[in-house]
């Protein structure tokens, strides 16, 4: 399937500056002289090809997509010059010179330009999902939630605070949750959020829905800006304009958290990132592991492929509406008064948790991020923490500690 290409969203910074910033961070995390890290970075985006096999034309193709969301044949003159500056930088800073030409045996990731590949599902699968949607609605209604829609179409479930007074303490701020790629959206997150993160807290709770990654047979996708506007509208309407929120996102749900953090930092008290795909997203691990990987080493990788990444509507979303440069979260840009909890899984099949752990610890050592960022490491693979009550308790305790200022 080759769906119509979506109009690219604007870069948060000029493309050339943005790409150089990524390389500079890579150099700072490892060392300025570490050419191995840079070669591994480029090799990763060429789907693990040996660096010696990569030609200049392969990297031109990759950068044409990464910097301009274009095919290399469609580049303007000034865009080609900026890409050429990248090769000058590689040679000057790292002594790396790529051989001219193009190696047709090397394939690079060009996510939004590649065809949408998927495995067909029986219609019974989608009928089952719709039945589960009814179950979700019934369960959340019994738990005191109302299903609502913002004026721009953003769907969400909302349960008001059990307190009759406005939230005065950070621990009473409304919790705003974004699910990852999952059948029925927030359904399987309900126990963790309500019986783990919130527990006996009187705070209000929002579950925002992304139907495009919930296997609900829709290709209607709200843009980053529509999601941010919808969240702001819902928060203002139900909780008031001056109330701050506690943002929580799991996996792909860390993307809307990133958008809100960039656009509405004054409305955020705390952020919790669970198995986030947005940290070091410019590193190839997330895209390659979830979208391009075809050689699986364990049952969980097969489950991710068969149950998520190869599903038609999810694949369409990732290939046509996922703009990596808008989704990467730069923790050093967040105001220091926002408390951030990052929870990673050591055996994560999608996120390179060892890179994230190493990178965050080095950023702390270098002073790029402060003590407002805490890191928790859990055993298990991607999303295992969602079904582990012991993990919920630890996350809840950490959230309470940062919100009350009692973090050790």
TrEMBL record:
State if Nucleotidyltransferase is listed as a keyword. no
* Residue ranges crossing the lipid bilayer per the database entry: 177-198
Q: Which InterPro entries match?
A: AB_hydrolase_fold (IPR029058)
Tell me which SUPFAM superfamilies the record gives. alpha/beta-Hydrolases
| Keywords tagged on the record | Membrane, Transmembrane, Transmembrane helix
Name of the protein described by the UniProt record: AB hydrolase-1 domain-containing protein
Q: Which organism is it from?
A: Triparma columacea
